[in-house]
Structure formats: C-alpha cells, structure tokens
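Homework help board

Subject: predicted structure for assignment chain

Our instructor gave us this sequence and asked us to write out the predicted structure in token form, then describe one feature. I got the tokens but I'm not sure how to describe them. Can anyone check?
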Amino acid sequence: MSDQHIDPAGNTQAFRAFAQRSEEETAAAPKKSPLLPIVAVVVVVAVIGVAAFLLLR
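My token output:
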C-alpha cells in the first residue's frame, strides 16, 4: 500500500463545477404543481360516480 493520499472525489474543481451546475439546473427547473393530477382524479371519480348512479337507477 502506498503512503500517498488519493482524493476519492477525483478532481475537486471538476466536482465543484458539477455541483454548481446541478444547483443552477435545479433552480431553473419549474416546480410541478400537484394540482393537475388531483383535479384529474376528482373528475374521473365524479364521472364514474355519475355513470354508476345512472346505471343503477
């Protein structure tokens, strides 16, 4: 075994550039709202409920 210490992260400057780029991409990405899937589920449940009501009437 050698006495030299090898940085496991590799090139620190490259890692910092990667980390900074990742933060910028994350900040630039728009946050998806959960409102659309919730509304879609409510509409589907309402349609199924109305259909069931009309068929069982």
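Reply (TA_rk): Your tokens look well-formed. For the description, you could write something like this. Residues 35-56 form the longest helix (22 residues). That's the kind of observation they're looking for.
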